[in-house]
Amino acid sequence: MEAQSAVADNKNLLANYVPIYVMLPLGIVSNDNVLSDKEGLKKQLLKLKSAGIDGVMSDVWWGIVESKGPKQYDWSAYRSLVELIQECGLKLQAIMSFHQCGGNVGDEVYIPIPQWVLDIGETDPDISTPIELVTETRSTLPLELITALFSMEEPLYSDYMKSFREAMSDLIEAGVIIDIEVGLGAAGELRYPSYPQSQGWVFPGIGEFQCYDKYLKAAFKEAVTKASHPEWELPDNAGEYNDTPEATEFFGPNGTYLTEKGKFFLTWYSNLLISHGDDILDEANKAFLGCKLKLAAKVSGIHWWYKSENHAAELTAGYYNLNDRDGYRPIARMLSRHDGAILNFTCLEMRDSEQDAAAKSGPEELVQQVLSGGWREKIEVAGENALSRYDSYGYNQILLNARPSGVTEEGRPKMYGVTYLRLSDTLLEDDNFELFKTFVKKMHADQEYCSDPKKYGHELSPLKHSKPKIPVDDLLEATKPLEPFPWDEETDMKVDG
Question: Any catalytic annotation for residue 384?
C-alpha cells in the first residue's frame, strides 16, 4: 500500500512539474554566421543539463541567416547549434527573431536586420515595410517608413519560417525543437517600439505613440471618416519619450484618453497591433503546419505606470489596458485561434516592493492579470524574468507565479514553462549555480528531471490549421475586466526553505 501511495504522490507531483529552460546568449551565433566557441558552449550546456533543466531558448536572427540577399539562407551555424543541443540531451525553443538586436533593454550585441532590406527602404521610400524592420533603425530609414502593416512583410517572414522548417525538418521530427516563438515587434515582442533606448528613452518614461508616418496617418483618416468623425486627428498632446503622464494633456487628469476621440484612437491603435500579430501568426501556422510543436508569442511586461489611472506606458506600446478595460485578454483570445499558441510574458521575477514608488509600478498585479487572462481564454501561458537575478527573492517570485496556488492535486493553475534569462559565466559561478539547481528542482515540484513530457501534460501533437479569424467585436468583448485567479502570498516551494 505504501508503495502504491508513493507512486500516486509522485504522479500528483508530476502534474505540478513546470519545465525550465535557459535563454542562450544573444550572440551565440556571430554576425558572420559562425557558432561561437562550440566546445565552451558544450561544457556550459552539459553543466546546465546536470542541473536538471529541460531545454534552452535561442534567437534565430534573420539579420544573420538571410544577410546576403533575398532567399539566400545560410542555416549552417544554427544547425550546428541545434545538433549540439540535441547531443547534450536538451530541447530547444527557437525564436524567429525578425527585429534588430541593439537599442533595447538588455541588448549586449548589435545584430542589424539584413542590409538589403535597408537598401530597399532607402532607394524607394514608398516600399511597404513592417514595424519590426524600421522602427528600431529609424536613424537609418526615412521617417515615412515607420509603419506597421504592409504587403512586404508576410512573404519575407513566411519564406524565412518555411526555409527554417525545411532546414531543420529532421530535428523537428526528432522532437528537439518543441516551440517556435514568432517575433512580432520590437525586441521580438508584440508591441510598438514606444520606448527605444536608442532614441534616448530612459525608465520610467511614458514612451511615444508610433503612428505618425504617412501610411498610418492615412489609415487613421480612413477610420475616422468611416466613423463619421473626419475632423479627428492623431494625438498631438501625448508628450515625449521621457515625460511623466501628468506632464501631458493626453494622459493627465481628465485627459484626452478618457474622451470619445481618445477612446476611438486607442481602440484603433491597439486593434492594429493585434491584427498585425494575428496575420504573422497565420503565416507561422502555415509554415509549421503538421509539425509536432507549439507556436508562441511574447507580450512585454510594461509594469511602470501600471498603478496610475492612465497606464500611459502600456497605452503607447499598444496595450489599451485601464482599470476598467483589459488590454491583454483580447491578445490571448487572438492567440487561441492559432491552435492554442502560447502567450509568453515577462517580468516574472519582479516584486512591487523592489520598484521605484515614483514610477507607480505594479509588476505583481500585471503578471497576475496577464496570466489569468490567458487561462480564462483557455490557452497556455509561459514566461521569463526581465532582468538577470541570482537571489532567492527573484527565484521565489518566479516560483509563486509559476504555481499561484502552490502544489495542488490537479496541478492547476500552473504555467506551461519558464525560461530563465540567461546563460552567463555569472550564473555558472559556484554559489549562484547551487541556488539555481535548487530553483530548477523546485520548478519541477521537487521531482527529478522528467524526460517524458506526457507525464506532466505536455504531449505535443501535429500543429493544426488556425481557426477562422475572430471578429473584432468578439475580441473587444474580451476587454471586460475580470478578477484575476487567486494568488498565494508566497510560494510553498521556496529555494531557501
Answer: yes
